[in-house]
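Write out a sequence, fold above all:
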Amino acid sequence: MQYRKLGRSGLMVSEIAYGSWLTFGTQVELDSAKKILQRAFELGVNYIDTADVYNRGQAEVLLGQILPGVRRPDYVVATKGFWPMSDGVNDRGLSRKHIFDSVHASLDRLHLSYVDLWYTHRYDPETPLLETLEAIEDLIRLGKILYWGTSEWEADQIAEAWALCEARGWHKPVVNQPYYSLLGRKIEHRILPTCTRLGIGTASFSPLAQGVLTGKYTGGKIPAGTRGADSRLNTFMKENLMNLKILEKVDHLEPIAQKYGLTKGQLAIAALLHTPGISSVIVGASNVAQLEENCKASGVQISPQDLKKIDKLFPA
C-alpha cells in the first residue's frame, strides 16, 4: 500500500481507503465487518470513511464496535454531517446546532473522543456559510475533529469557504470528497483544478461506478448476488450506468488491464490514482475478497500511452 499527503496537510492516508456507504449495516453485519476491517489494516489501509446518514447511523454503530479495539494512531476515521437524521426541523443542514449535534452523535456511535476528519456532506444554501465555518472551527479547537473537508461542493463554494477561513485565520478545508470514476469525470473541469490550486486534497468515492467498471455486467446481464440485482442499492445504476454502450466500453479495458496483470476494476482504480490532486480513492467492499482485489490497484504504474487509450474510451 502506498500513502499520500491529504492536500497540504501533514496527514498521510492510504491510496485506497475503505468506505462504509451501501455496505455496513446494509450488506455487511458485525462479523463480516470485523473481518473486512482486520484485513484492511493488514493490507495497509489506514483511512476508514463513513457518515452519520449511512443506514441512519448504523454504519457508525458497527464501526464503533470495532475501531476502539484498534490502536488509535494506526487509522484515520472520517465521518460526515448534513442530511436529515430525523423529522426534526433542526436535525439537518449545516447550522451551528446541527453540526454540534451531528459531531457529538457520531462520536457517541463510534465510541471515540475525536474524529480525524469531518466532512460537510453537501453545501447548505439555507445556512450562512460563516456560521458553518465558525462552528467547524470551534469543534476543531475543542479537539472533537482534527481536520475538515467538503463533499460534493462546487468549485466556487469550495473557493469561497477557503477564502473566508484564510481571512480569519481559521482552519481551512484540507480535502474534498466527490464522486469520481472513469464514467464520471465532471470534477476534472473545475472542481479538481480549484482544489489543487488551493492545496486541498481529493478523496473520491465510487471509483468503480457501483461495480459497473468491474465488467461483471457485460452484455447487460445482472448476476444474482450483485449490487445490480439488489433493488435497495441499484437505482442509480439502472438509471445512469446500465446501458450497452457503456458496458461495451468497459469490456475494451480488458487488453490494457491484461498488460499489467490487472482486472478491469483494478485498472479503473489505478487510472484515477494517476490524476494529479487525487489523495485517496475510497472503495466499498462487501467481503474480504473484493477488498483484497481493490487494494492491488495501489502503486500500479500505467504508461502515458495507455492512459491516453483509457481517456479516449472514457473522455472527461
